[in-house]
Records
---
Amino acid sequence: MREIALHLLDIAENSAAAQSRNIIIDVHEDLYNDVLCACVIDDGCGMDSTMAQNVQDPFYTTRTTRNVGLGIPLFKLAAEMAEGRFSLVSEPGIGTRVEAAFRHSHIDRMPLGDLSSTFLTVLISHPKIHWQFFYRVTDANGGSHEFRFDDAELKTELGDMSLTEPEILTFVRGMIEEGIEELALTVNSLDYKGENDARN
Amino acid sequence: MPAIKSLDELRRVREEALQKKQMKATPGNVQVIVAMGTCGIAAGARDTMKSVLNFIETEKVSGVTVTQTGCIGLCEQEPIVEVMLGDQPKVIYGKVDAHVAQKIMKQHVQNGQPVRENIIHI
């Protein structure tokens, strides 16, 4: 995997496979504390503690076609390579929370990547799940900025109209892409200002 | 407050989509399934998915269901895409990058002609 966003897609697919009804993907870039935190929370079938431990082992899988499962171990490794930490908390019947934290400025920290594509992909592929996406940025001065997307209103409004009708697709993609772009622009302009201040 | 598109706008877009859909309803059920296991994602399934959605948007193709499946045990062939047209048998494609995805959408989904060179026979 080349991006944290791709790992998030992979982990969210696990959540969807675990019969979740509600899934939250939460990304927090905290430049003030130099942490990047990426988290997927679901209310799916959950795992007991043995299994929650096992899935972190690359040679464990529930799949019958092969006997390795790499998704979670790879995400864990990516976090640990960047002086981060990884946690997986799960409760049978309640759900699972997977969280990877990275040192934001670490040279081996994977790029965050294309979050909007990840969001759009899971939203389209699992229309029956209630999705919430949070992308928060704490700038170097401690100010916070955020993008929030909750598909509930959108889906009520759409009724039985499919998300993959071209006009709807354009609308939803625009909503996600523009929201994230705008946030990135705000934060970048702040960074830029910071640099200028330092030079003067 | 970011310029989030308003719900009023969504209502208008929905009405438009509904009218267009009724005008040219696609015969039967059309499904495009992208494999999204860890192997698929690592091989570029998200770009494949993006390309499929992009085609739907730019060519204004109505009535296609786009969905996902997990690993089907052919990881070396990823990204894998399956196409189902009505009650015809499912066609499985391997090594579907963004470019091949466009070809499948145009040739197979729109015109009913499978893209032979990428079909996986199992």
---
Amino acid sequence: MDTRHLLIIIKKEFRGLMNERTILLAVLLQLFIAMFSSFLMVGLTSMYDPSSLSQYSGYQYGIGYAGNDSPLLDYFQASPDFKVYRMDLSEGIEALKERKLAAVVYVPDTLPDAQIPVKITLYTLQNDIQAAIVDVKLKDIFLKYEANLRQVRAGRLNELPVPVQIPPTQGGDFYEFVYGLLIPLLVFMPAIIASALVIDLITEEYQHGTLETLISTPVTFEEMVWGKVLACELLVPIQAAAWLILLMVNGIPIQNPHLILLNVIITSFIIILIGAIAALHYRERTAAQFIFSTALVVVILFSLAIPANPLNLLARLAVGTAGIEQWFVLGATGLIVIVLGYVTHRYAEKIGREHHIG
Amino acid sequence: MGTLTDISTIARWEVKKSFTMMSRDILPIAVILFVLLVIVTGFTAQSGIHLQDGIYVVGVDDPKIASLFASDARFSVYQLDDQTLLANQNTFDLIVINGHVYPGVTDKAKSALLTVSRDYSQYLNSVYNNENDLFAAYPLWIDSEPVKSELTFLSTQSGQYVQAAPGRATPVPQGTVQNVPTPSPTLALSQDQLRQQLITSSAKTSSLSRYTKTLTPQPSMGAFVTPSQLSPPLPFDSIILIFVFIFPLYFTSQFFMMSIMNERIERKGEILLSTPIKTSSIIIGKLLPYFLGMLAICTVLSVYIKASPIIILPLIPVIFFFLASALMIGMLSRSFKELSFVSIFFSTVATSYLFFPSIFANVHVISLISPLTLIVYTIQGTTWTVTDYLYSTSLFWLTGAVLFFIAAKNFKEERLFSEKPLLVRAREFLYETFSRKHPFVSLFLIAGFSIPFVFMVEMMCLVLFFNIPMPYSLITLLVFAAFIEEMAKAVGIYAIFSSDPAFLSWKNLLAACAAIAIGFLIGEKLLLFVTLAQISESVFGSVLFLSLSALWLPLLLHFVGVAIVACSLKFWGRKGLMIGLVIATTIHCLYNLYFILGVL
């Protein structure tokens, strides 16, 4: 293996990518998804937790209360989120239709300790974002009322659960989505793009018939393969780092960015090498891509099923809970890379010899 | 008759070709991989998805509570005594002392608290579900009654509060009050039926079944829920639909793309083109197997998840659009790399267009711009109307048809086998559709048919900017919409100018601008009339489609915009495009602003 030859191949591939300018699309893509993730953050958080947006905090929703008196009425009156009006059911619903109220509740005259449950009827607007917000706030009030009724009927229960007092929760619904799903996927996406690219680069030489010219230069077949693999691998940390920066700019703090990059570099080698082996074997893009993507699904599904998989490690690094065990995971990943690298090298050598003889 | 035979011959040929190509030791490996996939899926279903393991660290002083939380893999639980817990409070996301949860102050702690409270209520439910007296455990039931408001899209979209802030006095309705019957105080279901519902809905969900559950239609138990079940639908349910329905479609269209590309590389297409078979027959023939295959996949999937076969209807335009784009991408790209990048880019954009509106399914009408919402509805058992269908699929039908037309026009030797860059090729493709005899008619048509694409992009922007705080979202939308429209209008004139600069004499320039302006206006009017009435009524709509108020004003605006671009092309050559676009966009924005200020 000659480093100079490797560098020549890497440079050649980069020049090819730059000439086509399609790499710009990858950058655009990145921006596009970053915009969407901020859309998710701002949009959905505000939808499910309206108080997170300052404009919504301190806003009161009008509630029409019909039927019989109950502790529910007191809860509504005590709540800063609602302004409750006692009214006739039919009038309340008409006011709701005219959007003068956010919801109407009807409470029957069932006694708190009756054998049958208390069934309240809740009228809200259909297909409306605000109705969804009101639902979230109403839920808290109803839960309080449920606890109250449960207390009254506690004597009829056979088993009491372990008591845990939990303070009221606020927000936080999107933390898991962002750190536990979005970040691992986004940071890992460049690796998937790179492995699709390595298949393109290798099969292109076969299908465009440029292989013979390359083989006739002093560059050996293995050097050509490794050059292409490294060219693709180089793209991974660049893109992944861009992701991390974009996410941080979007206001999502990420811990241990350097360790995340290190992990992505090593893990991405696995799938890039699988891609290279598929391409060397089939020498034709459709077949190689097909087999590769199926294999990729198998590999990713399998690794997700094992505890402490590399993707989980990315999530833990991002939130800062990865302990000493991360180095074992990294070591195991490294071992797989070495084995795959060896296989790729031997396979390339074998094919290279065939080409020289043939 | 002859055309049909041609099509079926080509279709059979295409199937045979892909099978001979695939057979070369692909089949055995594919079978092995498939078996592996089944095994791995089983394994994953059993062991669960370990993606979020150990992201929270909690400290607990009671072994009972510790084991309660340890059953959730997201927690690393440490059982320590009170003193140590308090001393090291900062290293934990939350601590539990004497049955009281004390969370930290970070976002992560908030999220951990939320997870803890969900886990705990799940635990409570598992205890309460076994109670003999179900109505002692669940004493409160809520019957949700949706009410339809006459003021739907208009007021909610403006981003302002729907109701006036509640005042002191009880609100009095203005309209006539319809008598609403007093609801019955009893539940319509028996205790056992309710217990069954509680058990299914709170069955200890692994992370995998949490997703698969969304696919099987839930048994309809009426609208009775306990307070803890009262929450807006989880928005990420539609992610799973993307994977189940859209992913296989995207995958299959890849094969079609590759088949077109291979024909170009291996120059096999030349032989086919020299036969007397019509190009449209060649394209339809090549496409038919993929179309049928995709349809078959969807049918199998819908049978598998036991959904109503109606679910296929909104998928057909999506398939059509995917195939049209695949054909276009396969014809446009020069190399495999280009093909990969362009198709990844396309798939991401198309997926987000499908996915993002659909997370608002059940919540907001805007979700209807995605056919996926109709799929969500079908699975839920909600009915949708023909209008809904037209509304959410017309853009897919139209853009697909236009793409096919352009591709069919260009499906010939000199276009298929040229090695020029992507954008140049795209321009040439467009120029090819021009009629030499009636260039103005062509410009008129191109402007008219660019409308569905413009709407698609603008819809995308609408979804994107929908949630930026109010004044900014309007401004961004305003600028983007103006730019997109100016660009769409400029496309035709740019294509004609690049291929034939001499065409743009002053007289022709004016005529061309007029043709484009009229075409654009008519296209806009027509499509709005057919589909987008709902959105166009909102304030956002008035930014996008403002130009409909009077006829001659928007016509003048369109004319001025495209004339500016044409003139700058004439003065500065192809480099003038950007300058012209910027000036035209600015004028367009100012015009819109003037009217918006009047509107608001």
